[in-house]
Design brief:
This protein starts with a strand and ends in a 10-residue tail after the last helix. It is built from twelve helices and eight strands. Helix 9 packs across helix 10 and helix 11 packs across helix 12. It has one domain: TIM Barrel. The longest helix has 22 residues. By secondary structure, it is of the alpha/beta class. The protein is globular, with a radius of gyration of 18 Å.
């Protein structure tokens, strides 16, 4: 698996009964690939993996594997409370037809480096698939330091990439200084994509791409090509939306952007609830302003789609 380009962390669509809507999921994946995305990452935080039962997770992977049909890579997020559950999910994801795995630290328990390394290593050694380590100390409280990432890479040949979500672009430089080209580094925070690519990141695990795939792909490609003028112009109006990927209610907000852009529904599973009141009005104002800019550039009026 090549961990490069824009790989959206795909959202999980729910129907009115809050069951997974596999028809919408398949159509959305096709839409993202048609817009130029390099592949799909499923069962991440944005995919609400923590609210999905094991059978639902495997059904989602099966739908996406069938939809992609080997024409684009499919990576599965591997997160669990226990190491045994994480290893079992990794085995099942490989059997379902995934191309790679996005490996997270254990939920809830924040162990020391010896414990965390043992957990991650058990997952890596349980599969032949290409793996990407997910470093998000802000969300999970576990910070994989560059030296620790180098240690994991030295001991696990199938660790090929790092999703760096520390919000510090200097981490990209630090990992590259230690690992060279041994690992591919991907930006994991939407509003840090320009900085991350400038420091040498070769991919973007993107959230807002679910709502504005063409625009976010154009942003990444301009940044990667060194077209700073185009990248800056796109980033200027996208930035208020990209920042919605960095707050506690990022799932609700990105799904709301999807809904307003006509690419999904804002439905989320409890304990999350849709944003309301002043918080909702502020979000909608920012979303509609960005969509107005996008649509003006495309020569058409804004048409908020409403709930799918």
């Amino acid at each position: 698996m090549q961990w490069t380009g824009v790989l959206p962390a795909i959202t999980t669509p729910f129907d009115a009964q809050l069951e997974v809507d596999h028809r919408v999921l398949a159509a959305h994946a096709q839409r993202l690939l048609a817009a130029g995305c390099a592949g799909i990452v499923a069962l991440g935080s944005l995919g609400e993996a923590a609210t999905l039962e094991r059978e639902e997770k495997l059904a989602i992977l099966a739908t996406l594997a069938q939809t992609l049909g080997g024409k684009a890579p499919l990576a599965a997020g591997i997160s669990a409370l226990s190491t045994a559950d994480a290893v079992a999910l990794a085995h099942a994801a490989e059997a379902t037809g995934c191309t790679g795995l996005m490996v997270l630290p254990p939920y809830v328990y924040r162990g020391d480096w010896r414990e965390t390394k043992a957990h991650v290593s058990a997952i890596l050694r349980a599969t032949r698939l290409s793996c990407m380590l997910y470093n998000n100390p802000v969300a999970y409280g576990t910070d994989f330091l560059p030296e620790q990432i180098e240690e994991l890479a030295a001991e696990n040949a199938n660790l090929h990439a790092v999703k760096e979500s520390s919000t510090d672009a200097r981490r990209v430089t630090a990992i590259r200084a230690l690992c060279g080209d041994r690992l591919q580094i991907l930006v994991g925070v939407d509003d840090c994509v320009l900085e991350g690519v400038a420091m040498g990141a070769v991919g973007w695990i993107a959230g807002v791409t679910n709502a504005l795939p063409e625009d976010t792909v154009a942003l990444f490609e301009a940044a990667r090509a060194g077209d700073t003028e185009t990248a800056a112009a796109l980033n200027r109006w996208l930035l208020p939306l990209l920042r919605m990927d960095t707050v506690p209610k990022f799932v609700q907000l990105i799904k709301l952007i999807q809904q307003e852009a006509g690419l999904g529904s804002e439905r989320v599973r409890p304990p999350r609830l849709e944003v309301v009141g002043a918080e909702r009005e502020a979000a909608l104002a920012a979303i509609h302003a960005a969509l107005s800019t996008a649509n003006a550039q495309r020569g058409r009026a804004v048409q908020p789609a409403g709930r799918a």
